[in-house]
Amino acid sequence: MILRLLSRLAVLVASLAVSTMVVFGFMVVLPGSPARVALGVNASDASVAQLEQEFGLDRPKGVQYLDWVGGLLRFDLGRSYVSRAEIAPQIADRLQVTLWLVVTSTVLALVIAVPLGVLMAVRHRRASGVLLSALSQVGVAVPAFLAGVLLVALFSVRLGWLPANGWTPPVEDPAMFLEQLVLPVLSLGLVQGAVLARYVRSAVLDVMREDYIRTARAKGLRPMRALVRHGLRNAAIPVVTVLGLQLATLLVGAVVIERVFVIPGLGSGLLDAVANRDLILVQDIVMLLVTAVLIVNFVVDLLYLVIDPRLRSVR
Amino acid sequence: MSAVLKAEGLGVHTGDLALVQDVTLTVGRGERVGLIGESGSGKSLTALALMGLLPEGLHATGSVRLDGSPADLVGADEDELAPLRGKRMSMVFQEPMTALNPTMRIGDQVAEGMLLHRAHRRRAAARSAAVELLDDVGLPSPAEAARAYPHQLSGGQRQRVVAAIALANDPDLLICDEPTTALDVTVQALVLDLITRGVAARDAALLFITHDLGVVATVCDRVLVMYGGRIVEAGEVAQVFTRPRHRYTSGLLAASDLARTDDGRLLTIPGSVPQAGAFPAGCVFRNRCAAATSACETLPSWVGPDPEHGHACVHPVEVPA
Ligand SMILES: Nc1ncnc2c1ncn2[C@@H]1O[C@H](COP(=O)(O)OP(=O)(O)OP(=O)(O)O)[C@@H](O)[C@H]1O
Ligand code: SF4
Ligand SMILES: [Mg+2]
């Protein structure tokens, strides 16, 4: 068990190391020096040289790489080539925004998907189950940004219950924070929940046909209790996989919702950085997203170990 | 002898298709009854119908009664059936590899049934009773096994665990559906022994399903022969195995290791078991039977003193006087 944990951890560290090389390497092979990109094609060679010197871009690539990675380890992400502002605090704020969005909408998705998926599976031969299933299919077909636009049209424009956009940090004004959080989280969570519910449904349907559920019934457990006691944990294995994928997609995919609701998250930060031709900021945000995805995968791996004892024993 | 289990005219249907028909059987206290037949003859469906555990889409007709329970189990709802399952009647399944929950400890799976039926009210008491039971069914180092997960045990050990679960509440009726088919020959005998001992110690009724005639000969007192979803012959094991009357039974015996042709060749029943619903009208064995005549085109009636003794064959095998 400890061995498994350590090996998973080693995989995480190795993937992170490789990622830094890939991300850095990608920036290196881009045509033109970052300084020229930042200053624009019309900038004089002298001003480009000056910027390169200021940020150490005239040093050998290997040194620059080590400098960057060394910074990452100290949570020092360098300064922007454009605004010259420290990047770390700026990204930290954006990361916080995106995390609020992603985590709350994932929790909402789970709260919707687990009971709904189980219900759809248990009633799959009855009209109510088929109806729910059809409804969830509609949810799957609706893209999150469309859900966002529709929700805004209804709750902000029509009913005036909630703000149509904006973002206030929770420490500043908790009430405002929550009001502004509702619609973007609903847009992401409802759609994500519908998708996840389909997977929960099929996982539960599979499990319901397992022999051990029949054994549990033969013991005297009622169908629902047999399913809850013996089925859900086993059904969780494929669902966790999908949940991990969803989380990873959402980290980046939330950008559309961030645009619709004018939320200063990581995704919109990335788009801004690209628009400003601020390559170091792009590099840092991409690295952060990659790290987040790798950590999600690592946690999914750990969850497998928690859920399934078969994976714990070394064969 | 009082009948623990009494099924009359039991049938299993899916839509219009009859998979099992007109099964009448009784099993008395302490009695061990075998149910034999080739693959696809409807043995498992009969067992599941008795337990009220038919898979979705299948439903039972007829009547099933358990001694002491006034209600007919066919058509009874979960409120009536669930308290009986695992308590008054229980079942051991064919596939030990998949019959246990892979994510729950063995001890908890055994203790669960005892807690459920209030044999023990405290978790700790049920746990130690589970360890005792695991010792009883012959698991080496039972305390360790109780903490293990199914994948850490061998097939034979898992089947012992399934048997322990079935025997946990001292049931009046134990149904075993090919409990040793998936096991190594050496392990088979041990598991058979534990089942027969467990049943004897509780004076329980045993319905034992298998297609291994040798097993029936060692385990059972009486035997029911099933083919095409029907009971075609029934009687004492000694009687049926030495003087079969139904042509299917004699074919089955001839094909088994119990009897060989004069030149030592192994016999088989010609043809193969039809798909469900494709059995001929009249005698279900008609299309494979060498003795079939046009008289066999109508359903042969039961010949015998009672449903537990007799056969349904128009031209039965002659018994030497
Ligand atoms: N859920 C189902 N729906 C439709 N037909 C079924 C279903 N389950 C079983 N059958 C059919 O019913 C027939 C009897 O099946 P059953 O499992 O009772 O046979 P069996 O005698 O136990 O055979 P085996 O020795 O292979 O276990 C088979 O032809 C099978 O295909
Ligand atoms: S009833 Fe006819 S077909 Fe059926 S087993 Fe007897 S002889 Fe053969
Ligand atoms: Mg079977």
TrEMBL record, chain A:
Q: Where in the cell is it found?
A: Cell membrane
Protein family: Belongs to the binding-protein-dependent transport system permease family.
TM segment ranges: 9-30, 99-122, 134-161, 181-200, 235-257, 285-307
Say which domain of life the source belongs to: Bacteria
Its name, as the record gives it, is ABC transporter permease
Task: Write one Pfam family the protein is assigned to.
Answer: BPD_transp_1_N
Residues annotated as domain ABC transmembrane type-1 = 95-304
Please give the PROSITE patterns that the UniProt record associates with this protein: ABC_TM1
Query: Keywords on this record?
Result: Cell membrane, Membrane, Transmembrane, Transmembrane helix, Transport
- Report the source organism: Luteipulveratus flavus
Entry-linked SUPFAM superfamilies? MetI-like
Q: How does it sit in the membrane?
A: Multi-pass membrane protein
UniProtKB/TrEMBL annotation, chain B:
Its membrane topology, per UniProt?
Peripheral membrane protein
Q: Read off the PROSITE patterns from this record.
A: ABC_TRANSPORTER_2
Q: Which GO terms describe its molecular function?
A: ATP binding
Note the Gene3D superfamilies from the entry: P-loop containing nucleotide triphosphate hydrolases (3.40.50.300)
Subcellular location per the Swiss-Prot or TrEMBL entry: Cell membrane
**Entry keywords, A to Z:** ATP-binding, Cell membrane, Membrane, Nucleotide-binding, Transport
The family line of this record is: Belongs to the ABC transporter superfamily.
Q: What's the name of the protein? A: ABC transporter ATP-binding protein
What organism is this sequence from?
Answer: Luteipulveratus flavus
